[in-house]
Design a protein that fits this description.
This protein has eleven helices and five strands. It is of the alpha+beta class and about 400 residues long.
Length: about 400
């Protein structure tokens, strides 16, 4: 904060103190300036009466903030009184009036300041004509010009204060908007991570549940039970690996050795997993496959993963058909399976809610239908070709 800003802050907090300081400075400068040589080689004024007039006029500046019109009357009276008393022009006598008009211009609307300044200058002009018919032209101009300069300085000060206030307001608004945007981003990221964790955990725990049940019924067949235990081990490792990847994203680290997040190219792995877990799954691709943005890739993968997980849990032994249709600007994904039981997706569980949130976040649309004994999930996602790096 510079000196001017500190002075403005002090003026707003302690107006009487700053006004008193200004009054003392103006009185000191006024008394000293009275002694300076004037135009036309006229000597300065060192009389006690002149000094008292200037000091009294300056003293009224103490109330310039709380009683500006009284201050105007007193400072104008001081300038006119000195002019009539001495019969000559001295700029030092108009110094308190200059400060008073500057204050009025800085605290009142422009129309009020202009009218006040114009009326004061007209009155001083009449005084100059009456009192000093033999004055130099520069003296007549000075009698009016010095108060006018004060009003101009006050107007500029007011404009500067408004500009500073506007800049500060914009900065505060920008900070508030930035904080709000950051809070929204944090919330969106938390929702996205919750969807990821739900998808990963639900997918792998469903598989582990089936494999544990299988192992319990095959305890008398060690070889088959060993295969089920090996599958559980593989699924637990996959779950830990994907959760580790999600935690890594929360820490804003690179993909590293664990590789990128899954996408469209990994749907074949989901199909193999579903077949291994007793669900006859076929996939069909129409159109020309092409890469798209990472959020769309991940959304497509998670939708298929959630649909197959529900099929493994609630439609074991049935047939699931996955269709991917690449259109010019969109990707259509359909997953269909017989509706053997009331699935959590059909009843609006967390799986469907997370799927819908993920699809909306990627800019797509989700449609779930269970009519005709077939549970159908249809997702349409925007298909934007990634620019080559």
């Amino acid at each position: 904060m510079d000196v001017v800003e500190r002075w403005i802050v002090l003026s707003n907090r302690r107006p009487m103190i700053t006004a008193g300081i200004v009054a003392v400075i103006v009185a000191a400068f006024g008394v000293i300036s009275l002694r300076f040589e004037q135009r036309g080689a006229r000597p300065g004024d060192d009389t006690l009466a002149a000094a008292l007039i200037v000091v009294a006029s300056s003293a009224s500046l103490v109330i310039k903030r709380v009683r500006p019109w009284w201050t105007l009357a007193l400072t104008l009276a001081g300038a006119v009184g000195y002019t009539c008393y001495s019969g000559v022009f001295n700029a030092a006598a108009t110094l308190p009036l200059l400060v008073c008009l500057g204050t009025i211009a800085s605290i009142f609307p422009a129309r009020v300041a202009i009218v006040t300044t114009a009326a004061t200058c007209c009155f001083l002009t009449i005084v100059g004509i009456v009192v000093g018919p033999d004055w130099l032209l520069v003296e007549r101009i000075g009698l009016v010009g010095w108060p006018l300069v004060g009003a101009i300085i006050g107007g500029l000060t007011k404009a500067r204060n408004r500009y500073v206030t506007a800049v500060q307001t914009r900065a505060q608004l920008a900070t508030a908007l930035y904080e709000q945007e950051m809070a929204q981003r944090v919330m969106a990221e938390r929702l996205r991570m919750s969807r990821d964790i739900h998808d990963v955990v639900a997918h792998h725990l469903a598989t582990l549940n089936l494999q544990i049940g299988t192992a319990r019924h095959l305890l008398d067949k060690p070889d088959t039970a060993a295969q089920a235990l090996a599958g559980m081990h593989a699924n637990s490792e996959a779950a830990l690996r994907e959760i580790k990847g999600l935690v890594r994203l929360l820490r804003e680290e690179d993909a590293g050795a664990d590789g990128p997040l899954p996408g469209l190219d990994d749907i074949g792995r989901l199909v193999s997993w579903a077949r291994t877990n007793g669900v006859d799954t076929n996939s069909l691709v129409r159109g020309t496959p092409r890469p798209t943005t990472p959020d769309v890739e991940l959304a497509a993968y998670r939708v298929v993963q959630e649909a197959l997980t529900n099929a493994v849990k609630h439609a074991h032994g049935s047939h699931v058909r996955i269709t991917l249709v690449y259109r010019p600007t969109t990707l259509l994904i359909e997953v269909e399976n017989p509706l053997l039981t009331a699935t959590d997706s059909a009843t609006g569980g967390l799986g469907l809610a997370g799927m819908a949130e993920r699809v909306r976040a990627a800019g797509g649309q989700l449609d779930v239908d269970s009519a005709g004994g077939t549970f159908r999930v249809a997702v349409e996602l925007p298909l934007e070709v990634r620019e080559p790096v």
